[in-house]
Design goal:
This protein is of the alpha/beta class. It has two domains: about 5-250, 3-Layer(aba) Sandwich (Aspartate Aminotransferase, domain 2), CATH 3.40.640.10; about 255-340, Aspartate Aminotransferase, domain 1, CATH 3.90.1150. It is built from 14 helices and eleven strands. The chain has helices spanning about 5-10, 10-15, 25, 55-65, 75-90, 105-110, 130-140, 160-165, 180, 220-230, 240-250, 250-270, 295-305, 330-340; strands at about 70-75, 95-100, 115-120, 145-150, 170-175, 195-200, 215-220, 280, 290-295, 310, 320-325. The strands form two sheets. The chain has a seven-stranded mixed sheet, with helices on both faces. Helix 4 runs parallel beside helix 11 (about 240-250) and helix 12 packs parallel to helix 14. The longest helix has 21 residues, at about 250-270. The structure holds 4'-deoxy-4'-aminopyridoxal-5'-phosphate. 4'-deoxy-4'-aminopyridoxal-5'-phosphate (PMP) binds near residues 210 and 215. 4'-deoxy-4'-aminopyridoxal-5'-phosphate (PMP) binds next to helix 5.
């Protein structure tokens, strides 16, 4: 797919839009008197944030070795999912395609614009069936295909990503929210080859910054310009931009926490093994386990009664609950309850 064919996929009205960049970000003057934005002259956070997020993008550009023009920042990657659907999908007309089961927010944002959601049912190991992909794309055209890898809530990574990117006649979004836990290569290296590819990453998971709401899209310059054209001017607040720059400046804490979570994951996996109430712990590349219990309703309720909240996946995935890796204390509490359950 070439860059001109990308434009053909975009909603016509969106192609006319220009990114909103505040005056001060267009005219970066040396220490200007700022009387242009009706702000208060007092306070530590009295100024609007940088609408172009240029410092953060430059920092990320260094960190990931990708040009800043290929980076867009969102209020969490959730916002970027919303923007991508807005750019490419004509309301009430176009469709998106998702893996089934996968992350719920793709369908959530599609529903707002009455875009149809085409689900590709995964096989019993939660893999995409290639014949099904080919058949479905032929018979049910869609504009955007969301591939979640590692997939939430199943935990597995998608094999042979490039096959799907190459053979999909539209925009492919690879959602890598959990990539850091996987130890596997990101699809970032495929960006140069595929102008229809968008990669989403987030600071909410391995980076431990869910409260800051910062997500990142990496894509061709054309797609990034489109994202900038539809995003709210001040979509990422200044405090979050500063916090993420600090994290990237010194990633010691990130590395330490990641190591810790992965060690806890191993401990938890071992502790879950051979438990009477568990039928199967699915293999996972993420910081959570999808677990099939012998009676998931009872287990979920028993955990809740002990003040432990987990993520119910039934009835969509029969007898399954998604449980993420916590601190040792939290994991131990989980194990204690599970051990004592008599079905
Ligand atoms: N993608 C996936 C696969 C997720 O699981 C999540 C969060 N649950 C997100 C995106 C959204 O993350 P953010 O906090 O960056 O909006």
């Amino acid at each position: 797919m070439t860059t001109s064919t990308i434009n053909a996929l975009v909603r016509k009205n969106i192609l006319q839009l220009q990114p909103y960049i505040s005056y001060r970000d267009q005219l970066p003057l040396e220490d200007p008197v700022l009387l242009d934005a009706n702000e208060s002259p007092f306070g530590a956070y009295n100024r609007y944030p940088d609408s172009t997020q240029s410092k953060l993008k430059n920092k990320l550009s260094e960190y990931k070795n990708i040009g800043p023009q290929c980076i867009a920042i969102g209020n969490g990657s959730d916002e970027l999912i919303d923007l991508v659907i807005k750019i490419f999908c004509e309301p009430k007309k176009d469709a998106i395609m998702i893996m089934n089961p996968s992350f719920a927010m793709y369908g959530f944002y599609a529903a707002i614009n009455e875009n149809k959601v085409i689900g590709l049912n995964l096989n019993d190991r939660f893999e995409i069936k290639k014949e099904d992909f080919i058949e479905t794309t032929k018979n049910n055209p869609s504009k955007v295909f969301f591939i979640c890898s590692p997939n939430n809530p199943t935990g597995n990574s998608v094999d042979d990503l490039e096959f799907f990117i190459r053979n999909y006649n539209g925009i492919v979004v690879v959602d890598e929210a959990y990539i850091e836990f996987s130890g596997k290569d990101s699809a970032l290296s495929l960006l140069e080859k595929y102008p229809n590819l968008i990669i989403l990453q987030t600071f909410s998971k391995a980076w431990g910054m869910a409260g800051a709401r910062v997500g990142v899209a990496y894509a061709s310059e054309e797609i990034i310009t489109l994202i900038n054209s539809v995003k709210a001017p001040y979509n990422v607040n200044s405090i979050s931009q500063e916090l993420i720059i600090e994290m990237l400046d010194d990633n010691t804490l990130f590395n330490e926490n990641l190591k810790n979570i992965l060690a806890e994951k191993q401990w938890l996996e071992k502790s879950l093994r051979d438990m009477d109430c568990i039928d199967k712990v699915f293999p996972t590349d993420a910081n959570f386990f999808l677990i099939r219990f012998n009676n998931a309703e009872i287990i979920y309720q028993a955990l809740l009664n002990e003040n432990i909240l987990t993520s119910k996946r039934m009835p969509q995935i029969p007898q399954c609950i998604r449980i993420n890796v916590g601190s040792r204390d939290e994991n131990q509490k989980l194990i204690n309850v599970l051990k004592n359950i008599r079905l």
